[in-house]
Amino acid sequence: MDLSSALASPSPSYGKAVEAYKKAVTLATAAATYTVLARTMARELLPDEVRDTVRRAASAVRDHVLPRRMQRRVKTIHIAQIDDDGIPNRFYSDARPYLGTRVDPHAVDELCLAVHGARRRLSMVPRDTITDVFEGVEFKWTTTRSRRRRRRGDDSSDSDDDSHHESGSLVLCFDAEHTDLALEKYVPFITATVGEERLRQCAIQIVMNTGSFWHGITHHHPATFDTLAMDPEMKRSLVADLDRFLGRREYYRRIGKAWKRGYLLYGPPGTGKSSLVAAMANYLRFKLYDLDLSEVQSNSTLQRLLLGMDNRSILVIEDIDCCFTAKSREEKSDDAGSDSDSDKGPPATEGVTLSGLLNFIDGLWSTSGEQRIIVFTTNYKERLDPALLRPGRMDMHVYMGYCCWDAFKTLARNYFLVDDHPLFPVIQTLLAEVEVTPAAMSEMLLRSDDAGVALQEVVEFLQEQDKKPQGEASRDGK
Ligand SMILES: Nc1ncnc2c1ncn2[C@@H]1O[C@H](COP(=O)(O)OP(=O)(O)OP(=O)(O)O)[C@@H](O)[C@H]1O
Which InterPro entries match (predicted)? Predict the structure, then answer.
């Protein structure tokens, strides 16, 4: 029977079915209308907590009243760690730590634990599921792995064959009627929560000296290894070095050496040496002692200050080449490269000497505490006293150079959350030819809130620098 003839001569049973269907539609329409009305009123009149309770109650009533097939349509959102273009997904890197805060270690049988510096992070194991409740609505999260085609240039070792990568993925499921809540409120809430937590973790204690006294402040320094624009390989090896250092209590005990490490950061002004020190302190959660040697009148005052430092701390002396110029030359003729010269230095009252500093750092200071890091920075490595450059003195020499392409991409991501832009190829070409500092680049990127406008400024600036003779260009590019 076709539809028109069926409507023209309905059978009695068909008529009943139509009636029942009409009632159901009327009921559903009324329910939908009331739901919209009630939701609007609730939004405007009820405080958040009451609204959550009402929402939960409404959902329970609806579950009982409506036929099963009309109850729930589940919305599923997939959040891949790496998107199809091979670009890391920022929301994935926010959602993972957020979910880590929702993992109850007592409630699950299996969980992952990672320790970064002094931070401990819990997370879900693959294929685990947890439920988070936001504004009374349940959001169910599951971790999975996803496969995507390997792109030319990919170098991840996280792959099981030649043509595919495996990477992490999250699946978020919730009642489809809460799609707006999920996208407009829940997702931004997660991003904001993780952002605040990152900021909170960035509060480092910075201590400075006035004369022979330390005084401290707690300060949110925004520099982290993520925001730092530098050669990626150097960044990786520095982070690995810090991790190794942190976990080597037994090693240092066994070899009978003090648990300390020294880093020399060198490079032109504005390349991020001070930012790197802050990133190290943020990463390790160490206290930062910023020693101003011009405030220190004698070796004994210096020793008092150094002995007053806590464990798990970084001692930084900036522009070390400027601190001892005259005295170092004096000492060099005296010590002829020897280290055992602290007692040969000028009397304490005559001021601080490089040998006094180095000997004390290698001696009493490093054995009187644990997990100590010392950082010297300089713009002119070639001007440093050879005693500072001798093998074994500073464990790692880190060059902070002009802005390379990778460094620029980090800055662009920091400022505009962009990983690609039509102006990128021209900027990449120009950066290969011009020496500009990350500080100068940061300044350009700050000039507009619009990525296109700021990047155009960057192009013009680089083109201008490119026309100048090299020496002049790098001077202006600072
Ligand atoms: N590598 C970088 N990554 C991110 N931002 C940077 C970098 N280098 C410089 N900047 C920006 O420039 C500002 C100045 O940089 P910073 O003081 O760290 O450089 P520096 O090498 O220590 O300079 P100086 O030798 O003059 O002390 C920073 O606050 C930061 O905003």
Answer: AAA+_ATPase, AAA_N_dom, At3g28540-like_C, ATPase_AAA_core, ATPase_AAA_CS, Mitochondrial_chaperone_BCS1, P-loop_NTPase
List pocket residues of ligand 1, CB cut-off 6 Å.
Answer: 228-230, 269-275, 379, 400, 438-439, 442
pLDDT classification of 45: cutoffs 50, 70, 90: low
Going from the Cα of 348 to the center of ligand 1, the distance in angstroms, rounded, reads 35
- Residue 88 DSSP symbol: B
Report whether 144 contacts 169 (CB < 8 A): yes
The answer to whether residues 345 and 360 touch, using CB atoms and an 8 Å cutoff, is: no
For residue 189, the tally of other CB atoms under 10 A from its CB is 14
Distance 228 CA to ligand 1 centre (A): 9
What's the 291 CA to ligand 1 centre distance in angstroms? 19
Give the burial class of 243: count Cβ atoms within 10 A of its Cβ; 0-12 exposed, 13-18 middle, 19 or more buried.
Answer: middle
The pLDDT tens digits for 436-447 are 999 999 999 999
Q: How many helices (H) and strands (E) does the chain have?
A: 21, 13
Q: Which two tokens stand for residue 378?
A: 């300089």
How far apart, in whole angstroms, are the C-alpha atoms of residue 369 and residue 384?
27
Residue ranges of E strands in 85-176: 112-116, 119-123, 129-134, 137-149, 164-175
| Rounded average pLDDT over 333-339 | 41
What residue owns the CA closest to ligand 1's atom 10? Answer: 439
Query: Does the interface ipTM go beyond 0.95?
Result: yes
**Under 8 Å CB-to-CB from 134, ≥6 apart: which residues?**
181, 185, 186, 189
CA dihedral 429, 418, 452, 404 (to 10 degrees): -30
Token pair listed for 76? 């599923």
Å from CA of 388 to ligand 1 middle: 23
Question: Does the structure show a pLDDT above 70 at 396?
Answer: yes
Sheet holding 74-80, edge to edge: 74-80, 164-175, 137-149, 129-134
Whether 198 shows a pLDDT value over 90: the answer reads no
In the chain, the amino acid numbered 35 is: T
Query: Do residues 150 and 163 touch, judged by C-beta distance below 8 A?
Result: yes
